[in-house]
């Protein structure tokens, strides 16, 4: 019996059997594709202040940031639209962003730090605003009270002491913060969000002054503080000279 004729191979089948080879003279000129790190410019003083959440975010996500000196802040209304700093420029998108919490929400969207569900996003946004409520009395203690013993005692009594959690505090108390944490030790169950970064920055700032008071009353917050600080990219930033030494412009706090 005669064997049936072998069907002709299609072009695709021929390529699979004998893939083409590239000319070495051509392949030697190929340059591997690499993704460059997101690039930002930040106009701010050499303090942590309002820019530290941004710096922590850039460290976490491996973004490049060039910090630029503030010049003519009150007169250059093109760069300083509200006569204030910080000012953030996304060099890749050619966007200039004003107002601290607008910057925070922008980088949260850019780096996927808002949460994964609508419930997550609401809780993250709520945490950002809760931290802002705590920042106001902290700034008052530092810049108005000048860290006097009276100002510090008032801050502890109103915002840290559990005995006064139901008192008048403007919606700001560390007991509220601790109750935001989930069983995985973060704000949501979807990893680090911008809410976690904001909360950590506020907690870290206050613990510079009131570490013993926080440790005595808020073990879950302390565990959260340690967990976030141990994140490799964050730990590297915290140990580097890229982090400003002073938290505030008056060298207090």
**Helical amount among residues, as a percent range?**
40-55%
DSSP helical segment count: 10
Percentage of residues in strands: 5-15%
Total beta strand runs: 4
Cross-sheet strand order for the largest sheet:
2-1-3-4
Q: Roughly what is the average pLDDT, rounded to an integer?
A: 90
Give the termini distance in whole angstroms: 97 Å
Tell me the structural class. Answer: alpha+beta
The biggest beta sheet reads: 4 strands, mixed
Question: Shape from CA axes?
Answer: globular
Q: Strand-and-helix sequence, N→C?
A: HHEHEEEHHHHHHH
* Unreliable stretches covering 5 or more consecutive residues: 22-34
Kindly provide the radius of gyration, computed on alpha-carbon positions and rounded to a whole number of angstroms: 26 Å
Blueprint of the fold:
Elements: H1 11-17, H2 24-27, E1 39-43, H3 52-61, E2 64-68, E3 87-90, E4 95-97, H4 100-111, H5 118-144, H6 149-160, H7 174-180, H8 194-217, H9 219-229, H10 232-238
Parallel strand pairs: 1-2
Antiparallel strand pairs: 1-3, 3-4
List keywords for this structure.
48% helix, 7% strand, alpha+beta, 253 residues, 10 helices, 4-stranded mixed beta sheet, single chain
Question: Can I get a quick summary?
Answer:
With 253 residues, the chain is of the alpha+beta class. It contains 10 helices and 4 strands; from the N terminus they run H-H-E-H-E-E-E-H-H-H-H-H-H-H.
Question: What would you note in describing this structure?
Answer:
The protein is α+β, with helices and mostly antiparallel strands and 253 residues long. α8 (194-217) crosses α9. The chain has a four-stranded mixed beta sheet with strand order 2-1-3-4, with helices on one face. The protein has helices spanning 11-17, 24-27, 52-61, 100-111, 118-144, 149-160, 174-180, 194-217, 219-229, 232-238; strands at residues 39-43, 64-68, 87-90, 95-97. β3 (87-90) and β4 form a beta hairpin. The chain is 48% helix and 7% strand. It contains ten helices and four strands.
